[in-house]
Design brief:
The complex is a heterodimer. Chain A is mostly helical. Chain A is built from 7 helices and no strands. Chain A is elongated. Chain B is built from 3 helices and no strands. In chain B, α1 runs antiparallel to α2. The chains are: A mainly alpha, B mainly alpha. At the A-B interface, α2, α4 and α7 of A face α1, α2 and α3 of B.
Chain lengths: 202, 102
């Protein structure tokens, strides 16, 4: 560890370890986020039969968007892994390419989800129609918001990856961004199983 | 830097991707074709989903039983316990309540 000369507290000291304390701290955040999603899953499960005069899961939810969304997000988790490998090998060009590919796939996912929500709203299936639709939009929307936040973070990391010297703090941040992105795909596995596939089975 | 067994490689990410893709396709196929036997189809969807979460943890989030991952593993197990209590408890109580109100 290098000595810090200036009196100003250095950010580098806080997050300069790739697999140490900051990674563990980030795991703590991920697990608290998992608890948030778990409660939204529980809410959805409880609300699922509260359809009132609105449509039930089998009518309101289809696989037309869910299937491509799933494939796109899963592939983006692979390109994220390749970006992490490029970082490991100090290959900046390939890091930028794979990270860029990840963000493009993330944008495609969000566009598909926006089209899906828009189509549902056009049919009159909005969150205020029933408890089931409230639960659906809260759960799937929370995941979409997480991906949106991930896009902002990912763009910042793309700029840092392309322009900075790939120093220890940048590596550490990229490592945590990779964890975050993989985690969002893990949550999506729960969403497509519980919400979409269970929904189509009626 | 010494590499632990189970540290990320291209091959490892690809293996994880193919496993996850296969399980995803099985789950979607079961939901699509399983109209005749709903319980079986639901079982396949839930089973494939649980295995796929394990695949993601192992191949993408690099969670393992190695020494460097011990703290993370304990954290994930505690979180899993909390989640099971919260989700299981909520669903149990609310569905029981639903049944009693019928």
């Amino acid at each position: 560890m290098t000595a810090v000369g200036s009196a100003a507290p250095s950010m580098d000291r806080v997050d300069d370890d790739e697999n140490g304390k900051s990674a563990f701290g980030f795991w703590v955040f991920l697990m608290s986020d998992a608890a948030l999603f778990a409660v939204l899953f529980a809410t959805y499960a409880v609300m699922m039969r509260g359809t009132g005069s609105g449509p039930g899961p089998a009518e309101a939810i289809g696989l037309k968007y869910a299937f491509p969304e799933t494939l796109v997000l899963l592939t983006s988790t692979l390109t994220m892994g390749f970006a992490a490998m490029a970082l490991h090998a100090d290959a900046r060009r390939s890091l930028v390419v794979w990270l860029g590919a990840t963000l493009v796939l993330g944008a495609v996912f969000l566009a598909l989800e926006a089209a899906e929500f828009h189509g549902m709203a056009a049919k009159g299936d909005t969150p205020q129609v029933s408890g089931f639709l409230s639960g659906f939009f809260a759960l799937v929307g929370a995941h979409g918001l997480h991906v949106t936040a991930g896009m902002v973070w990912g763009l910042a990391m793309l700029v840092q990856g392309a322009t900075s010297d790939l120093s220890a703090p940048v590596r550490s941040r990229l490592g945590r961004f990779a964890l975050y992105w993989h985690f969002l795909d893990l949550i999506w596995v729960g969403i497509f199983s519980i919400v979409y596939l269970r929904g189509t089975l009626g | 830097m010494s590499r632990e067994p189970g540290s990320p490689t291209h091959r490892r990410y690809l293996t994880g991707y193919l496993w996850a893709l296969g399980l995803t396709l099985i789950a979607f196929a079961a939901a699509r074709l399983g109209g005749a036997n709903r319980t079986l189809a639901l079982g396949v969807v839930i089973g494939a989903g649980l295995i796929q979460i394990g695949v993601h943890l192992r191949y993408f989030l690099h969670l393992g039983f190695g020494k460097s991952q011990r703290e993370n593993l304990v954290l994930v197990l505690i979180a899993t316990l909390l989640i099971l209590l919260m989700v299981g408890g909520s669903v149990w109580i609310m569905f029981d309540l639903n049944r009693r109100m019928m």
